């Protein structure tokens, strides 16, 4: 029942956890003592006909016990919350660290919304698991045993009845739970299907309206809504059974004990004190089990969340063990020999033995249809993914032997769709690395300075999530400014595939020329004007390089490249 | 309060079932009281060694209550959930009816994924009002009245003690906890939102973060937020702990005080020993009814807020109904049409005037944000506009929106496909269409070939949002819908956006070639060969900057020419 990974998270805080359980047990013992005092008071006053003054000390004792119980309950809750906070923090930090460690390619495979919900709301669910469910699990075993210890010496039969019913409860609950789960699976599927259908109709309402079909759907929705109810009730009918069993055995247990001790009392084999004490203990005996039942949901939710967290943590981040350095001033040449790559979960290789080399200072353009493997080459060079075959050499040394951090400082990357982090434009250009003074020069070089200055707050304008919206062209220019500031010997450029606004397009060709000067360039090109600046063009098709040469040669060759351009022109 | 009344009025629909649920709930708590009281009576009486037959009723009673309690509880849960889901079904239908009546322009705002999900979540939340607010409150009140009136016959001191416990334990304390948590919830939510923003940024910018080595600064920021969040929550936890202790104290202290009062009554001879035991057990076990009240403010707030949001939704102005007219002809005329969106600084459309006689093919081109799509929306009455748009010599505002939409087909860039078969998705345009009509529509849209490759042909399910189809295939199905509808006016609103050049070219040619005797408005930023168009209108910032045939515009070497040059540079 208990999730092992989740239990692992408790390990460093085992002291707090034990304290929580101990608090619960202490509460149980105090409840027994309280029952004892109450019984004593009743016995003394009813049977021994003693007055209020005689039982004063008992009342004082009772008040003291109650006070201790209240303080204990408060402290236990405090400790449980403290424990939950510690665990939540640990889990959150571990998740975030892991998200930072995995590569961007692995990140894309994750569903961002789900991960976000997991780190924020999901981790909160874990709290209920640790503060309610888990301690209750311990108490449900220990507290009834403690109470049995008191009942056992007084009356064997009552103790047996309590123990027997308590053992039957988990058995029946498991049995029903198992059967219910099997029965419910199909119902849940139909339920989720139904809710998806509802969602589908409402989301497509504009389409329905445009075709004048929205009114007739009212009947469908009405029917679905009632079907939803019928199905839900069918699920609940079974789901409530386990609570029923819990309730039934605990009340029947109490009733049987009451009758048994009543009869014993009648025949004089038991005193009022003993009988009433047991009667008061019976509900206390079942209470931890009943509470466990009501926290069961929280426990399940917590387990589900931990399962999801584990899924994220199971993604193995790329190992970076390289230690070779690259001296700062050095030009960079790259050689791919027979490089192969296949993404996880796909049968088809994205790259089939790709071989090419980029000499220091050379500019190479990758061209081809989308999905032909161009961006995979860029990602390999960036170290976001690792080749599954062949080798990538940088200045004669294998890429994986080079210190990864150092490698990254030697390259500037311009992605196809640049991301703007939430922050000012200045922060977005510098990315926390370069001195501010050179920023304006970089922005000017990228053709971004003018539009930035036209903004009311200039370089201090907040962009990104919740900030000012910038057009695709403007984002592109900021991304280029980042690259200028980087002054790295290698430029990896993924050009935007769709046309930008006319002003940005005009800038682009001009800016790129400047940016490429004196650098080794690996670019994925989508513009003829960009390709024209390359020394060499590699034409990709289905993971192979099918053609290579200078732009002019390829045009004259009437091969793939020339054909592609013709098709595109034909499309115009 | 208005929301509260609305929720109560909804409950009228299932008043019998709800009443039954509450009745069973009271009986279930009653049988627990009965169980303890009878058991107490049994034991105390037995201690005086009466003959066995005097106890037989009590013995039967104890057993009866023991079994009844569980059965009644099951019945209560079942029936009250059934009542709740009856109400939810009613609200779901109301909700659909309301959005169905809403002007189409507003739909986009309400039926986008996230908001819709929240709305549906809100409806689900309402179940807590019925299950966790209304029912427990009524049950607790009924139990309090019954037990209270019983206690009153014995002693007013006892009644006072009982009522005080209920008020403090079931009302004041939960309220204090709730209001304190509410006050603290604000900083927690702010921090959580900040964490969300930071994480979104971190995930969306993962490439830049990796390439520019921004990991450690991202870590620093998020870790700091996590720690602060933890601290804020800890201070909530501390108060919750104090209050938990306090509530334990109040409930247990109440039982202690009850005992004290009972003993003093016993001493005075007002009650017998047996009565003292029974009353003590009745009072302590009746406190069970106030346990659900602890979470009541929480569910109250949540469900009333949800009810408020749903109600604003239901109260939206319905699309106005207008009488239908016979349309004389399908000539379109735009006169000084302007559109300005709520928060925008600039007008999306700025005084546009042009004519489209029936059967003409007109392209409207321009960069993104030039106002092309707004133009189509205005024509479909999806946005409100100034100036006038005339269809058949009559302002389209005077037609009912349903009528205008009958004459216009649209193929837009975001085609919505329902999670159903291909046939069902296309038939939507004309449910009565024959197989032959369907086939010819698919043929004309160039969809026949790819469908024939599917194993189940027309019966193929397209998946949620048509995800199992490629972008080009989805657009071809949209074209097929338009063909089947066969309206006199066809709007092609960026039908090829998001497709690669080769597919875009193919889809566009099917779209343009197969148009019959109908008016075509093609809205596009993809400047393909537009020589088949009778007129090209070039928009820039909501204004017409150029118009003419493709030939005229190319010779002019103006805006259109420049845009096409950029396009020619792309591969």
**Any idea what the CATH architecture of the largest domain in chain B is?**
Up-down Bundle
Number of strands of chain A: 12
Helix % of chain A is 55-70%
Strand order of the largest sheet of chain A: 6-9-10-3-11-12
Q: How far is the N terminus from the C terminus of chain A? A: 64 Å
CATH superfamily of the largest domain in chain B: ABC transporter type 1, transmembrane domain
The major beta sheet of chain A can be summarized as:
6 strands, mixed
| Number of separate structural domains of chain B | 2
Please report the number of helical segments of chain B: 19
Strand order of the largest sheet of chain B: 6-7-8-3-9-10
General description of the model:
The complex is a heterodimer of chains A (572) and B (571). Chain A is α/β, with parallel strands linked by helices. Helix content of chain A is 65%, strand content 10%. Chain A has helices spanning 4-10, 14-47, 56-101, 104-109, 112-154, 156-203, 205-210, 217-266, 272-313, 374-382, 404-409, 425-430, 437-445, 449-454, 472-486, 502-516, 528-531, 551-557, 560-571, and strands spanning 334-341, 351-358, 363-368, 389-394, 397-398, 411-414, 423-424, 462-463, 490-494, 520-524, 536-541, 544-549. The longest helix of chain A is centred in the middle third of the chain and has 50 residues, at 217-266. The radius of gyration of chain A is 36 Å and the shape is elongated. Chain B has 571 residues and is an alpha/beta fold. Chain B folds into 2 domains: 2-314, ABC transporter transmembrane region fold, CATH 1.20.1560; 332-415 and 479-570, Rossmann fold (3-Layer(aba) Sandwich), CATH 3.40.50. In chain B, 64% of the residues lie in helices and 10% in strands. Chain B has helices spanning 2-11, 15-46, 53-101, 104-110, 113-152, 156-204, 206-211, 215-268, 273-286, 296-314, 372-379, 401-407, 422-427, 435-444, 448-453, 471-485, 501-513, 550-556, 559-569; strands at residues 332-339, 349-356, 361-365, 386-391, 394-395, 408-412, 489-493, 519-524, 535-540, 543-548. Chain B has a 6-stranded mixed beta sheet, sandwiched between helices. In chain B, strands 2-1-4-5 form a 4-stranded antiparallel beta sheet, covered by helices on one side. In chain B, a hairpin with a 2-residue loop joins strand 4 (386-391) and strand 5 (394-395). The longest helix of chain B is centred in the middle third of the chain and has 54 residues, at 215-268. Chain B is elongated. The two termini of chain B are 62 Å apart. The relative contact order of chain B is 0.08. The model of chain B has no long low-confidence stretch (mean pLDDT 83). The interface between A and B is large, with 148 and 142 residues.
């Amino acid at each position: 029942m208990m999730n092992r990974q989740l239990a692992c998270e408790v390990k460093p805080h085992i002291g707090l956890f034990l304290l929580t359980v101990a608090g619960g047990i202490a509460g149980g013992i105090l409840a027994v003592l309280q029952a004892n005092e109450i019984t004593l008071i009743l016995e003394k006053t009813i049977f021994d006909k003693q007055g209020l003054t005689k039982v004063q000390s008992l009342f004082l004792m009772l008040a003291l016990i109650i006070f201790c119980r209240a303080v204990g309950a408060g402290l236990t809750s405090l400790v449980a919350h403290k424990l939950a906070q510690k665990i939540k923090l640990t889990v959150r930090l571990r998740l975030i660290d892991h998200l930072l460690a995995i590569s961007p390619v692995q990140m894309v495979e994750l569903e961002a919304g789900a991960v976000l919900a997991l780190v924020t709301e999901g981790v909160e669910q874990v709290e209920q698991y640790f503060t309610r469910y888990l301690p209750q699990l311990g108490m449900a075993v220990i507290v009834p045993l403690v109470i049995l210890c008191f009942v056992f010496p007084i009356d064997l039969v009552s103790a047996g009845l309590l123990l027997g019913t308590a053992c039957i409860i988990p058995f029946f609950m498991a049995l029903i739970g198992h059967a219910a789960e099997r029965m419910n699976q199909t119902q849940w599927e139909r339920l989720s299907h139904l809710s998806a259908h509802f969602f589908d109709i409402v989301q497509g309402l504009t389409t329905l309206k445009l075709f004048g079909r929205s009114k007739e759907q009212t009947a469908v929705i009405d029917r679905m809504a009632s079907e939803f109810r019928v199905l839900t009730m069918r699920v609940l009918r079974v789901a409530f059974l386990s609570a029923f069993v819990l309730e039934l055995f605990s009340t029947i247990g109490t009733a049987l004990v009451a009758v048994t001790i009543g009869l014993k009392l009648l025949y004089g084999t038991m005193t009022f004190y003993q009988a009433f004490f047991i009667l008061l203990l019976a509900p206390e005996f079942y209470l931890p089990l009943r509470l466990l039942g009501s926290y069961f949901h929280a426990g399940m939710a917590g387990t589900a969340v931990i399962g999801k967290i584990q899924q994220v943590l199971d993604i193995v981040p790329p190992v970076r063990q390289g230690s070779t350095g690259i001296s700062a001033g050095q030009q960079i040449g790259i050689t791919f020999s027979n490089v192969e790559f296949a993404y996880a979960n796909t049968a088809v290789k994205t790259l089939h033995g790709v071989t090419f080399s980029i000499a220091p200072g050379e500019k190479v353009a990758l061209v081809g249809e989308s999905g032909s493997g161009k961006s995979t080459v860029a990602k390999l060079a960036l170290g976001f993914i690792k080749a599954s075959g062949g080798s990538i050499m940088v200045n004669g040394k294998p890429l994986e032997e080079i210190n990864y951090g150092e490698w990254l400082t030697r390259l500037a990357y311009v992605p196809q769709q640049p991301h703007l982090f939430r922050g000012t434009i200045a922060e977005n250009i510098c990315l926390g690395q370069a001195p501010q003074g050179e920023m304006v020069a970089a922005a000017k070089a990228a053709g971004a300075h003018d539009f930035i200055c036209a903004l009311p707050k200039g370089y201090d304008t907040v962009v990104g999530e919740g900030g000012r919206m910038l057009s695709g062209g403007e984002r592109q220019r900021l991304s280029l400014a980042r690259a200028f500031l980087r002054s790295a010997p290698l430029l990896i450029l993924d050009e935007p595939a769709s046309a930008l606004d006319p002003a940005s397009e005009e800038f682009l060709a001009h800016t790129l020329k400047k940016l490429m000067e004196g650098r080794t360039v690996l670019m994925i090109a989508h513009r003829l004007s960009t390709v024209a600046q390359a020394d060499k063009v590699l034409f990709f098709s289905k993971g192979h390089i099918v053609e290579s040469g200078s732009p002019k040669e390829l045009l004259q060759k009437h091969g793939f490249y020339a054909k592609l351009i013709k098709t595109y022109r034909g499309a115009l | 309060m208005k929301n509260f009344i609305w929720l109560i009025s909804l409950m009228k629909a299932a008043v019998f079932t709800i009443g039954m649920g509450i009745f069973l709930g009271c009986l279930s708590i009653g049988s627990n009281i009965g169980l303890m009281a009878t058991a107490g009576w049994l034991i105390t009486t037995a201690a005086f060694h009466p003959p066995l037959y005097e106890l037989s009723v009590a013995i039967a009673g104890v057993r009866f209550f023991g079994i009844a309690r569980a059965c009644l509880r099951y019945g209560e849960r079942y029936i009250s959930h059934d009542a709740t889901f009856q109400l939810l079904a009613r609200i779901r239908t109301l909700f659909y009816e309301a959005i169905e009546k809403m002007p189409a322009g507003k739909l986009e705002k309400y039926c986008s994924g996230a908001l819709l999900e929240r709305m549906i979540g809100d409806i689900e939340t309402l179940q807590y009002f019925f299950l966790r607010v209304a029912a427990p409150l009524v049950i607790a009140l009924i139990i309090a009245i019954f037990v209270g009136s019983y206690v009153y016959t014995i002693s007013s001191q006892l009644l006072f003690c009982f009522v005080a416990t209920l008020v403090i334990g079931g009302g004041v304390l939960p309220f204090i906890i709730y209001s304190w948590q509410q006050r603290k919830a604000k900083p927690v939510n702010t921090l959580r939102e900040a964490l969300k923003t930071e994480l979104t940024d971190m995930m969306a910018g993962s490439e830049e973060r990796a390439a520019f080595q921004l990991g450690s600064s991202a870590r620093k920021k998020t870790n700091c937020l996590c720690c602060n969040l933890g601290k804020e929550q800890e201070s909530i936890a501390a108060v919750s702990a104090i209050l938990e202790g306090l509530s334990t104290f109040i409930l247990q202290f109440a039982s202690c005080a009850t005992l004290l009062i009972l003993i003093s009554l016993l001493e005075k001879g007002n009650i017998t020993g047996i009565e003292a035991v029974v009353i003590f057990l009745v009072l302590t076990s009746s406190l069970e009814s106030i346990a659900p009240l602890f979470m009541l403010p929480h569910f109250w707030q949540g469900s009333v807020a949800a009810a408020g949001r749903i109600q604003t939704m239901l109260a939206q102005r319905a699309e106005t109904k207008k009488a239908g007219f016979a349309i004389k002809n399908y000539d379109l005329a735009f006169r000084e049409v302007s559109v300005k969106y709520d928060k925008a600084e600039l007008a999306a459309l700025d005084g546009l005037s042009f004519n489209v006689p029936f059967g003409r093919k007109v392209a409207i081109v321009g960069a993104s944000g030039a106002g092309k799509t707004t133009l189509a929306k205005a024509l479909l009455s999806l946005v409100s506009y100034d100036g006038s748009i005339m269809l058949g010599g009559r302002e389209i505002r005077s037609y009912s929106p349903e009528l205008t939409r009958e004459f216009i087909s649209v193929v837009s860039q975001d085609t919505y496909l329902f999670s159903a078969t291909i046939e069902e998705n296309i038939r939507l345009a004309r449910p009565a269409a024959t197989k032959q009509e369907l086939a010819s529509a698919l043929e004309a849209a160039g969809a026949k070939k790819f469908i024939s490759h599917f194993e189940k042909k027309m019966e193929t399910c397209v998946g949620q949002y048509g995800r199992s189809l490629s972008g080009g295939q989805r657009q071809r199905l949209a074209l097929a819908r338009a063909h089947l509808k066969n309206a006199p006016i066809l709007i092609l609103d960026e039908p090829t956006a998001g497709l690669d050049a080769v597919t875009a070219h193919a889809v566009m040619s099917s779209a343009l070639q197969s148009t019959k005797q109908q008016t075509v408005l093609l809205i596009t930023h993809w400047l393909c060969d537009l020589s088949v168009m009778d007129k090209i209108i070039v928009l820039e910032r909501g204004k017409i900057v150029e118009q003419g045939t493709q030939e005229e515009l190319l010779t002019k070497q103006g805006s259109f020419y420049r845009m096409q040059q950029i396009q020619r540079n792309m591969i």
